[in-house]
Amino acid sequence: FLFGAKCVIKGIKPNSREPFECYHMSDIEAGLGLKRKHLIAMSLLVGNDYDSGGVLGIGVEKALRIVRVFSEDEILDRLQDIGKGLKPAVSGGIKSGDDGEESHSEMNKRSPHCSRCGHPGNKRNHFKSSCEHCSCDSGCIKKPFEFRCECSFCSKDRDLKEQKKTENWWIKVCDKIALWPEFPNRKIIELYLSDSFTEDGSSMSWGTPVTEMLVDFMVFKLHWDPSYVRKMLLPMMSTIYLRERAINNTGKPL
Question: Endoplasmic reticulum: is it a keyword of this entry (predicted)?
């Protein structure tokens, strides 16, 4: 997929009910929201065929979180910025420190909360008559374990803490990537994005699989019977045919 393939066949297993695995780029886009350049970015972070190590301390889960921050058009440029020691802004995510200080100042003015029920107010008043949230004749109800107050002040406080946590995480990740030498490797990026040449300079092109060539390959490499190969290839070729027909008729995948 990093080279631009729309369908990848792997895991060939003779004498099996499922003799091969078939993956489609459209399924990855629909399921994970990742496009080709996102996958290239992930390979640079976690490792690939040309750099198996990747960035130390960056696993698949963390890399996925990083690449999802940016669109396909900007992800590789933003990795370039991070490699230079910059920390690209995250749209709709991390806010400036000034905003945080102002919000924390507002939080200092928040109303007191009852130590018994956890709702806004104080325990003495709630002991006489329950608060509007508890609505109990015999006073407030003792707050349960892991109680979360949903008043505007507490909700804002949680949001600020989560924002700060995300901001610190982003800074640490960017610093970790920036320490990695020559990141991102431009040669690897160019190799993946080249649609017509391989690493040794030979040309290549993408097209529909030629059935008879696949049959000959399976017979030669795996010693399968030609009739068995055609039988196993039929579902795959049918799927490819239907997908291409849908694209040609509507301009969009089926």
Answer: no
